[in-house]
Amino acid sequence: MLRVSGLSKRFGGTQALRDVDLEIAPGEIHALIGPNGSGKSTLIKVLAGYHRAEPGAAAELDGEPFDLGHVTGSRHDRLRFVHQELGLVEELSATDNLALSHGFSRTAFGTIHWPETERRTSTLVERFGLGVDVRRPLSLASPVQRAVVAIAAALQGWEGRRGVLVLDEPTAVLPPGEVARLFHIVREVRDSGASVLYVSHRMDEIFALADRVTVLRGGRRITTRPVAELTPRSLAELMAGHDVETGPRGCPPPSRAAGEAALEVRDLCAGPLRGVGFTLARGERLGVTGLVGSGHEAVPYAVCGAWSGPVSGRARVPARSPRWVDLRDARALGIPLVPADRAREGVVGAFSVAENLTLPLLDRLRARLGRLRRGREAVLVEQWVRRVEVRASGPGARITTLSGGNQQKVVMARCLAQRPDVLALCEPTAGVDIATRRQLYELILRQAADGMGVLVSSSDTQDLLALCSRVLVVRDGRVVRELHGRDITEPALVHAMEGTSAT
C-alpha cells in the first residue's frame, strides 16, 4: 500500500534520517517505534509534506508514485495524518476544525447549513463517546478531547477507501478505557480497506494492535519484523541497541522523611471535583487517577494555581508557612507543575533550551540593577542539563529541535531548579520512549527520597505502578477509593476507575 525507499533528511549538521526504507502492506497495522530522536517524527513530517526529502528518495501509494515533501499537487489525499501536535486551531470549535479540511454543509442558497454541519461533526466525534461539545472552542477542551477531534478529522471520508492513516502517539494522554475504544476504531479503519501506520512508545499497544513493526534508531531503519516473532524485551533491546529492563518494577517504599506533611488540601472544588481533600507527606509519591471527566486531572492544576476555571478550597505547605491559602491564590504555595500537554503548556517554542529552563528563575539570576547575570545563568543551565541528561546540540538550541522526551526533561529541570517542597506532575511520561520513561522515573524517585512530596496525576497505569506509594481514585468528582503499597495493581486501578467489581 505504501512503499518508501532511500529516504534521508538532514537539518544543518544533524542527519535526522539516513537511507530509510519502509513498506506497509494493504490492510496492515504497521507500528513504527524507536527512542526519542530516532527520526520517527521527521519521517512522518516528510510523508505529510512538511519537510522535503533529500534527493534520491522515492515513494509509492497503492502503486502510484508521489513526491516526498510536497504539501499539494502530487501528495495523495489518501495519506492522512494525526500528528503529535494534533494540528488543530484551538480558538475554533470541533465543527469548524473538521470543516477546515472538508468544507461546511451548504443550504440551497449557498449559506452554511449549521445544523447539518454540526450533525456531521457529532457523528464522527461520538464514536469515541467522550461527550465533546462540538460548538465550544477547543481551547476549553481537555487534551483527550482535542486528540479525539484530531482523529475524527483524519477519519473523514475514509469509509471503504484504500489508503494509509498515520497516527503519531495517539494515546499519549488517553486512559485505559479510551485506549481500548481507539483500538476498536483503528481496527475498523483497517477492516474498511485502509492501512495504518501507528507510532507509539507503549510496548503493550504494539503487541495488542500491530501486525508488523519497524524499528528506527539514530535515523536508520534497524529492522522490520512480524510482531508475533518478538517479545517486549527483545523489541526494547532493538530500540535501545543493548539489554534493557522492561515492565514496571516494584515501587520502593516511601522515604525515611515521610510522615511530616508536605501539602495539605481541604474542600477542593474545580471542574468536576466536589470537596476533595488529602494530605501528602514528605517523601511520599501520591497518585491521583480516574476516567476522562472524573476530575482527577484538575487536582495538580488547582493546587499549582494553573486551573483555568473557578476553583475553591484551601491548602498549605507547612514547610513554607503554617498559614492556609485560599486556592484561588494557589500560586502563593510555590508548587511547580509539569503539565499534561507539553507542547501547549510546557514549553515556549520560540525560546532556547536555556531560556525555557530559567523562565521562573529570572529574579534569582538578576543583578542589583536588574540585568541578567549571564554567567550565573549558564552555570545553572549546564548543571541541570547534565543532571537530567538533556540531549541537545547546546543550551542555545531552540527547544522545538529537541525530541519530546528531551523537552520533557527540560520542563522537569525547570520545576526542580526552583527547589520546591512539593512537585506536581500531570501525565509525566506522555509521548516519551521506554528509556526516557525510566530516566524520568529514577529522577522523580530520587527527589522523593530526598524528602520532596510528589503529586502524580496520570491515566497511565504504568506511571502509577512505577512511581506511587499511594493512589487516590476519583470518580464523578469525588475520591472513591484509596490504594496503598502492594494493593496498587493494574486490575485494582482499572476496576476502581470504572466502578466495576474485581471478581
TrEMBL record:
Superkingdom to which the source organism belongs: Bacteria
Sorted keywords for this record are: ATP-binding, Nucleotide-binding, Repeat, Transport
Spell out the Pfam families in the cross-references: ABC_tran (PF00005)
Question: Which residue spans traverse the membrane?
Answer: none
Does the record carry Transport as a key word?
A: yes
PANTHER family from the entry? CARBOHYDRATE TRANSPORT ATP-BINDING PROTEIN MG119-RELATED, GALACTOFURANOSE TRANSPORTER ATP-BINDING PROTEIN YTFR
InterPro entries the record matches: AAA+_ATPase, ABC_carbohydrate_import_ATPase, ABC_transporter-like_ATP-bd, ABC_transporter-like_CS, P-loop_NTPase
Q: Can you give the residue ranges of the ABC transporter domain?
A: 2-243, 258-501
An example molecular function term from Gene Ontology annotations? ATP binding
Indicate what this protein is called per its UniProt record. Sugar ABC transporter ATP-binding protein
